[in-house]
Amino acid sequence: MSGETNGLLVPDEIVMNKIYHIRGMKVMIDSDLAELYEVQTRNLNKAVSRNLKRFPDEDFMFQLTDEEFKNLMFQNGTSSWGGTRKAPKVFTEQGVAMLSGILNSDRAIAVNIQIMRIFTRIRHMFMDNMEIRLEIEKIKNKLDNQDKNMEIVFRYLDVLLEKQEHPNPPRKRIGYKPDDL
Fold first, then answer.
1. In angstroms, rounded to a whole number, what is the distance separating the alpha carbons of residues 50 and 43?
2. What is the mean pLDDT of each run of 10 residues along the chain (181 residues)?
């Protein structure tokens, strides 16, 4: 991974493919981050352990449950996860930002900046997608209202056509008739 692409250390697609959606959050796995930073996973986790105050809650970092770990391996089609003995730690966007404070190599800083930009781009794409969904919902609602209005118009037309097909029959005159005398 030493070849640069457009001034980037790692192609954006590779970084994006290492972002997972777990527990309703976008996260990156410790081993993937270590690979990107070109450090060993155990060294990354040691640095995190020495700086646990930077990762106070699950919105920064958490360890996967065995079930989540199995699901992740199944999704990736991986039979083993590099020989790890326990489920990996995962870092949210905030956690990755905190990693920049404890990993000071030039590569770690550059890769971290790239990861933060990708997280931001993903958030913008999600917001744009949400705006499109809202616009589609508005259009659907308008179409539903138009359908209801068209249905009413067609009912009125049916009533008018029925009246035209079956005009009122001639009435029998009632009252005094001079011929009856």
1. 11
2. 52 84 88 89 89 87 86 66 71 87 82 86 80 83 82 86 74 70 54
For residue 12, give both structure tokens. 């954006």
In the chain, what are the domains?
Answer: 12-132 (3.10.260)
Half-sphere exposure of 35 (CA within 13 A, CB side): 11
Tokens coding 91: 């870092």
Distance between CA atoms of residues 73 and 81, nearest Å: 7
pLDDT digits (tens, 9 = 90+) for 26-77: 899 998 898 888 888 888 889 988 988 888 888 898 988 888 888 777 776 6
